Structure prediction request, 265 residues.
Amino acid sequence: MPCATDLGRALCVVTGASRGFGRAVAQQAARLVKPGSVLVLAARSGDELRALQAELSEPEAAAAGLKVETVVADVGQMEGLESIIRTSKAAFSEHVDHVMLVNNAASLGDVSRYAQSFTDMSEVDSYLSLNVSSSLCLTARVLQAFPQRPGLRRTVINITSLCALQPLCSWVLYCTGKAAREMMFRVLAEEEPDLRVLNYSPGPLDTAMQMEARSRTADPNIKKSFSDMFAQGQLLTCEASCTNMMKVLLEDSYTSGAHIDVYDV
Ligand code: NDP
Prediction:
């Protein structure tokens, strides 16, 4: 199957774009979209988002007709989702032929304790609200705001993890959240055949989350495996992993709803 060389004239919404993998997604998407495209970048850290906006709005990008909008928002809050939708609707034009949503924002949760210590329902609810509920509700809002019409492609990406498939001791919140979130997108793929749904597992990335994993994990064996991966230089850069994700998106031959790992590409 011939591989596309661009993502079209896109409206591309990326959550957690202030650092790590989300930032790399924004940088690579900026190079792969056609003129007239818009990036909507969301996170809580305004300074980092604005620095990225400035980088992506340098003269060549501006000349290429790329608009970059930032939304300083907590995606775990309803108002956060509302401002992402408001900005996306304002930025949308009828020339857009591809709506892409990258559900990337996530948190690790408290990995310093084992499952049997999680007695407080509000702590668990708050984790699941940010990591599961928010991505379903944001996705639903985006799909409603930009309904299916001839000539419009719609792609929803969930940044997942091996932890959606494999239990890790002392990672009960993260593994539960990733498993639930991935199943949600699999259901969506079954329900909406016109939609392209990708669960992309980016592999072990050299990011703040990975640093938290190797310093805070309670389980000694899991902690050691993270420290060893770091010490042995086995972590991937966000750029390398994101390049593989973009390859999957450009080829566009994955089964909608599939879990695709960086090492499968
Ligand atoms: P980081 O912790 O480095 O970055 C997380 C991003 O999410 C930041 O931009 C952060 O921005 C944003 N974010 C966190 N909470 C919120 C919130 N409440 N509202 C809005 N934005 C928020 O993580 P990574 O880049 O490592 O991870 C990116 C994705 O990849 C995640 O889904 C993660 O689970 C997944 N993943 C990561 C792996 C790894 O090894 N790092 C391995 C497998 C999967 P801000 O703080 O500014 O709000």
In short: The pocket of NDP is lined by residues 15-16, 18-22, 43-45, 74-76, 104-107, 130, 159, 161, 202, 204-205, 207-210 (CB under 6 Å). The first helix runs from residue 20 to 32. The two ends are 15 Å apart (CA to CA).
